């Protein structure tokens, strides 16, 4: 089938798909006329029940916490998959991560990049940590905070060399941190079972003031673990890709 | 106005599918897959919007202010981060395919055996 | 529920409508641009801009959480991963 025939077949098929999709979407009540009861119910009762003012995080970690466990383990499996797929194959060799021609004239990293990266690393780490631990009050949460924490490590790689990145985030430590994050989330749920409650119920004492940092029971704890796990997963993925680019070569055994 | 976001959703989906079908490069194909995924985020948030309402955060607005639906926001939020990791896995497959077959063209990849 | 509630964070409904329609049109144009570009590195950069446009759209839909996610992932983490892949492929091709 030539390219033009393929394009024609796609245009015909997609016209049919678009027609059905639009017909289905026009049967909805329209943009802005949200009819369903669940959104209004949760908005009304979430603050009273969990003492958390960020309702999206209560849906994520409390009312729908079981789904979030599943999604976090998708992330875990994806990071493990990247580490497995990008391993050293037979017929390649992996150089050690040291500088082999240490006395050559290397053009240094531009001072502007270095200054900006070093200036921003500290605030980015603080901001990622703050976001990961304040899920119950602000628009934040474990997922966003974790990705921002991983970005700080990318900044370190940009301002220095790959060797520095490897020294700061060795694979063993990152693996352990990721496992602690994923296992911690599951452990919080299991410890609820150990107390005789259903899995992942909120068993820690709710704070006194809704919206304080120490309010909302297990939601803050779970968000912290999720932040650890997401950060470690992204650092692993980026580290694997960097290793693949810089260290693995053809030839040898 | 009531159906403009849905028309945009269908447009983004069709454009992304066109890119996937007529692509000659695996990396271009994966980026068009990212565009297709983004159409679902717009659809999710478009379904849950309430006209004239605020975001569902009651830190400094009183609790009974009309707010948009938080359930679809929770869905879209975890969706975005998880799809990025799955895309990284797809890219790892593309790297290994390039190593093994020497080409990133989907048409040529389909006809190589072994 | 047609009138906007009067908090410090809302604008009149007509202004919100115009804003949302504008950003939706920009997002549609951005998606078309991402698909139609065929050079690799340029497409990654346009994808980054598309991520920022999507983040502004989510903000106009009153969803700040999703905005944060899309900004960090779509404009930073995903282009980093893509560029590393491109570097590896280019290194093998030379």
Describe this entry's structure for a reader:
The complex is a heterotrimer of chains A (253), B (114) and C (94). Chain A is mostly helical. Chain A has one domain (36-97, 109-250). Chain A has nine helices and two strands, in the order H-H-H-H-E-H-H-H-H-H-E. Chain A has a two-stranded antiparallel ribbon. Chain A is globular and about 65 Å long. The two termini of chain A are 42 Å apart. In chain A, 39% of the residues are buried. The model of chain A has no long low-confidence stretch (mean pLDDT 83). With 114 residues, chain B is mostly helical. Chain B has one domain (4-111): Helix Hairpins, CATH 1.10.287. Chain B is built from four helices and no strands. The longest helix of chain B is centred in the C-terminal third of the chain and has 32 residues, at 70-101. The N and C termini of chain B lie far apart (53 Å). Chain C has 94 residues and is mostly helical. Chain C has three helices and no strands. Chain C has helices spanning 13-36, 40-60, 64-93. In chain C, helix 1 (13-36) packs antiparallel against helix 2 (40-60) and helix 2 (40-60) packs antiparallel against helix 3. The longest helix of chain C has 30 residues, at 64-93. Classes of the chains: A mainly alpha (253), B mainly alpha (114), C mainly alpha (94). At the A-B interface, helix 1, helix 2, helix 3, helix 4 and helix 6 of A face helix 1 and helix 3 of B.
Which oligomeric form is depicted?
A: heterotrimer
Alpha-carbon distance between the two ends of chain A:
42 Å
> Stretches of chain C where pLDDT falls below 50 for ≥5 residues?
none
What is the straight-line distance between the termini of chain C?
62 Å
Largest sheet of chain A: 2 strands, antiparallel
Largest sheet of chain C: none
Tell me the β content of chain A: under 5%
Tally of separate domains of chain C: 1
Write down the secondary-structure element order of chain C.
HHH
Count of discrete alpha- or pi-helical segments spanning 4 or more residues of chain C: 3
What structural class do helix, strand and pairing data of chain A support?
mainly alpha
Structural class of chain C: mainly alpha
The portion of residues forming beta strands of chain C comes to under 5%
Counted up, domains of chain A total 1
Mean pLDDT of chain A, as a whole number? Answer: 83
Count of beta strands of chain A: 2
Shape of chain A: globular
* Average pLDDT of chain C: 89
The count of β-strands of chain C is 0
